[in-house]
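This entry is passed on directly below:
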Amino acid sequence: MHIYFTMQNVINIREIELIPSAEGVKIFDYDVLTREEDRRVRRVALDKAATLSKVSGRKANIVLKTPAGYKRIQTLVQGVDATSAWIENGVVIPLMAIYAVDIL
């Protein structure tokens, strides 16, 4: 079981609705994580996911916090910078929409 803790919520990542793609998903216009520590953890997890994706083809669960609730995608993380993460099929996700990352 993969559980992700933040000050706001405790969620079981595997129980969140799995969607086929992040394309077209509506996101908030603010960062879904309020604590700087949580933002650092998100960035480190994305960096690790990108490295493992390149080295061994490992996928990651990315949890998005949307107006419709939490949504999860399983994907290869191809890269990350200060504002965005790049995933399969050239999709770019703003970091502010990513609530959690779980490497499979």
